[in-house]
Design brief:
The complex is a heterodimer of chains A (681) and B (113). By secondary structure, chain A is α+β, with helices and mostly antiparallel strands. Chain A has 18 helices and 15 strands. Chain A has a 5-stranded antiparallel β-sheet with strand order 2-1-5-4-3, sandwiched between helices. A 5-stranded antiparallel β-sheet of chain A has the order 6-15-14-11-12. In chain A, a hairpin with a 5-residue loop joins strand 1 and strand 2. By secondary structure, chain B is an alpha/beta fold. Helix content of chain B is 45%, strand content 32%. The chains are: A alpha+beta (681), B alpha/beta (113). At the A-B interface, loops of A face helix 2 and helix 3 of B.
Chain lengths: 681, 113
């Protein structure tokens, strides 16, 4: 493919060559005619090269004149103006030549006349074609499909007229006029596409009018000049006898005239348009005013400034009762603000000013009048976030009844947008906070994980395995084992009421108590009583802990235990192959916070045999519910345990968890759950 | 989700609990108990439509035990479903609370107390 630069150069070269060949053949034919030479040369040759001259000029400008956008309308018109100026100066030289040699034979020589006329043709083509391309760009600004279709037809018809001109119909002949009228109707319809004018500001509109009017003078001048040549009657080829040229002239004049008129009539309204544009820009500024991490002050400033300029307010203040109260004033002092607040008579505005406002407000009621020496008119717009008033924007005018409903509507949109920005600002802040909490919860989780034993101490008389899963980042389940003296193991499983962070804290306290008390070889009931006393001092009133505590004596193969309100542990006897629930009486820790508690502590002893198994669990397992709202329960847990009873401990645990999960069938667990399994040998 | 209605009868307040009490809905139970404990000396709680109670919900009952005892307010709960009853029993609350089966028994119990 050819690059754009190459296309420009090629079309320029083609244009120059076409003009040279056109002039050469034109003059040569004239020469042949004058001296009656017997040369067989087609008369159509100059026609061809004139056509190629026009076409290559058109291509040249198509490549060099860029598409119209809102920035370069004036640049485009400036181009027309400058091109016109240069070409007009050229044509002035030609007129000057005739003026200087007015009575000389040289100006009566057909060859000279035609040569100069050909130069003028070149200049006219340059000016007309470049202007045509600019007009095209302007007409096709914000184009629609139908507009493009119309334009394409017009352009092709113009090209067709180039060929039509080869037949040499004279101006005012029927064929000529038919073609001309046809093209002019198109030109007229197309000339009403003037959307670009709306985008000019006041100053630019004046400049455009100036440029177009000056270009009109060039056109007039060219026409006069061409007409002068026609009158010499020495022309071998008259430009004004060509449909293409005449319709091009008419199109350019039509569009220029309509553009000037439309621009002129648009002048008075352009300030309104500019203001609307400014409002849109302010609006955009407001909505983008709080990028992450910046403060809200900027939004307040923009809100104040844009609102004031939108309604021509003389003074204003913005009050925000946020975490940090803000009072921003423009054009008045804080004492005046107080004075005005006291002076307001309308109840509705009073309500807005004193933050007693909820929900929608009526825009007609927030406009009011004042009996203040400086200010007579007031608008008070509540600043709302999520239907709650957080502030008020007040605008003041020195003259009475200065505000109208339309102004309130504009201010309301500003205030709403600012409200949204502020809300976003709050949300971003909250999101950052939440992120921080999440981070801290992660730390808490890893801390809590370290509170559960990695390895559970045991000896060769039993194996032990613990497993815990928290519903939230941190949980309240606890299990542990300690060996205070050789062959004696203290085993605990506990569950703090509730879940989440507070449960996790209590669990850590429980661990502290276990690690200090279970270091001694004491009875389970002694431990539970002391633990109740200790935990009662640090638990919240509505919190409690359930626990089950075992003292395993591996020398005697017995275990003593106390159940403190915890889910009954399951004891599997290998000899009877049956499960026994250790569901004796007992009260959760922290439920009774005095010595009365002790009377509910009951201790039992079981002797165990090799192969027996003890399963401790928390209520998260038995209370786990499936979609039908059924609990896994002991009805689910016991058969599951029996199913996996002879497997290695790890597989027993996995088996039970798998059974639980398939019971839940994808339903999420919403409580912590833990398992501790002991198998005696 | 829970729905709690308090009905003022002649000489006692009847609190009817419907649905499930978990950590979030336990606040409503707390509010109902607080209100009743301030206005009456006899509270009956109908749990016959309680489907589930979490440890946080139990915590609410527990947190009032001492206060009600001090104020000499009688509290009787009745109509517990089997699963709910089990939860109360496991925790040992039957030692500390008056739990009966029917409303008639409850009215009788609360009037004797």
């Amino acid at each position: 493919m050819l690059t754009n630069k190459l296309k420009i150069r090629l079309s320029l070269l083609a244009g120059i060559l076409s003009w040279l060949l056109f002039t050469f053949f034109d003059l040569y034919l004239l020469f042949v005619e004058k001296y009656d030479l017997n040369v067989n040369l087609s008369e159509v040759l100059p026609q061809i090269f004139l056509t190629t001259l026009i076409v290559s000029t058109l291509f040249f400008y198509r490549y060099t004149i860029t598409k119209a956008d809102s920035v370069n309308f004036l640049d485009l018109l400036w181009r027309v103006f400058i091109t016109g100026l240069v070409t007009t100066i050229g044509s002035l030289f030609i007129r000057g030549f005739f003026f200087v040699f007015k009575n000389s034979t040289i100006t009566e020589n057909a060859l000279t006349i035609n040569f100069l006329y050909n130069i003028l043709i070149g200049l006219v083509v340059i000016f007309l074609v470049s202007t045509f391309v600019v007009w095209k760009r302007l007409i096709l600004y914000q184009k629609t499909k139908s507009l493009i279709q119309l334009w394409t037809i017009f352009e092709y018809s113009l090209f067709a007229s180039l060929l039509f001109d080869w037949f040499g119909y004279k101006l005012m002949s029927i064929n000529f006029n038919t073609a001309l009228i046809f093209l002019c109707i198109f030109a007229l319809v197309l000339s009403f596409n003037l959307k670009w004018i709306a985008y000019l500001n006041f100053k630019q509109k004046w400049k455009s009018i100036l440029f177009i009017l000056l270009s009109g003078i060039y056109v007039y001048h060219f026409l006069i000049n061409l007409h002068n040549f026609t009158e010499t009657e020495a022309l071998s080829l008259d430009l004004l006898d060509r449909v293409f040229m005449v319709s091009l002239f008419i199109f350019i004049i039509l569009y220029a005239a309509i553009a000037v008129l439309v621009t002129l009539f648009n002048l008075p309204t352009s300030s309104v348009f500019e203001r609307k544009l400014q409002e849109a820009i302010d609006f955009q500024k407001l909505s983008q005013s709080i990028p992450a991490g910046q403060n809200a002050e900027q939004t307040y400033d923009i809100l104040l400034e844009s609102s004031m300029s939108a309604v021509f307010a003389d003074a204003a203040w913005l009050e925000i009762k946020d975490t940090e109260p803000v009072l921003l004033t423009r054009g008045l002092t804080e004492p005046t603000v107080k004075d005005i607040k006291d002076l307001v008579k309308q109840d509705y505005i009073k309500e807005v000013l004193s933050y007693r406002f909820n929900g929608e407000y009526s825009s007609s009621k927030i406009i009011g009048s004042l009996h203040h020496p400086d200010y007579k008119s007031i608008i008070a717009v509540p600043v709302m976030i999520q239907n709650k008033q957080i502030g008020v924007l007040v605008l003041l005018q020195e003259v009475g009844e200065a505000f109208n409903r339309e102004m309130v509507d504009i201010i309301s949109t500003f205030v709403n947008q600012a409200g949204i920005s502020l809300e976003n600002f709050h949300l971003i802040k909250e999101a950052i906070e939440t992120e921080r909490y999440k981070e801290e919860l992660k730390i808490a989780k890893s801390v809590q994980k370290s509170l559960l034993p990695d390895e559970m101490s045991h000896n060769d008389r039993f194996e032990i395995l613990g497993y815990s899963m928290a519903a939230d980042e941190v949980g309240g389940d606890y299990y542990d084992v300690l060996e205070p003296t050789e062959g004696i193991f203290n085993l605990i499983i506990g569950d703090v009421s509730g879940k989440g962070t507070s449960a996790a804290f209590n669990m850590a306290q429980m661990r502290g108590i276990f690690h200090s008390l279970a270091q001694k070889d004491e009875s389970p009931s002694a431990f539970i009583k002391q633990a109740n006393a200790a935990m009662s001092r640090c638990l919240e009133r509505s919190s409690f802990i359930t626990a089950m505590y075992f003292r395993i004596d591996t020398k005697k193969s017995v275990m003593d235990y106390v159940r403190a309100g915890h889910c009954p542990a399951l004891f599997y006897s290998a000899s009877s192959k049956k499960i026994c629930r250790l569901e004796n009486n007992g009260l959760g820790l922290g439920i009774l916070r005095n010595s009365e508690y002790d009377q509910y502590v009951e201790e039992y002893t079981i002797a165990y045999e090799p192969g027996d198994l003890l399963l401790l669990y928390t209520d998260g397992i038995v209370e786990a519910k499936n979609d039908d709202n059924q609990q896994f329960g002991l009805e689910g847990l016991e058969p599951s345990l029996l199913n996996h009873i002879n497997k290695p401990l790890e597989d027993v645990k996995d088996g039970i968890i798998d059974d639980l999960m398939s019971f839940l069938n994808g339903n999420k667990l919403d409580d912590d759950y833990s398992l501790t399994i002991v198998r005696f040998s | 989700m829970v729905k709690i209605d308090t009905i003022s009868e002649e000489n006692y307040h009847l609190i009817q609990v419907n649905g499930e009490i978990d950590a979030s809905s336990s606040i409503e139970l707390d509010a109902a108990l607080k209100e009743a404990s301030e206005n009456t000396s006899k509270i009956l709680i109908d749990l016959s439509n309680l489907e589930y109670i979490s440890s946080a919900g139990l915590g609410v009952f527990i947190s009032y035990l001492e206060e009600l005892k001090k104020k000499e307010v009688g509290l009787v709960i009745f109509g517990l479903k089997e699963k709910v009853h089990e939860v109360f029993e496991i925790l040992g609350l039957q030692h500390l609370m008056n739990i009966v089966e029917t409303k008639e028994e409850a009215v009788k119990a609360v009037n004797e107390a």
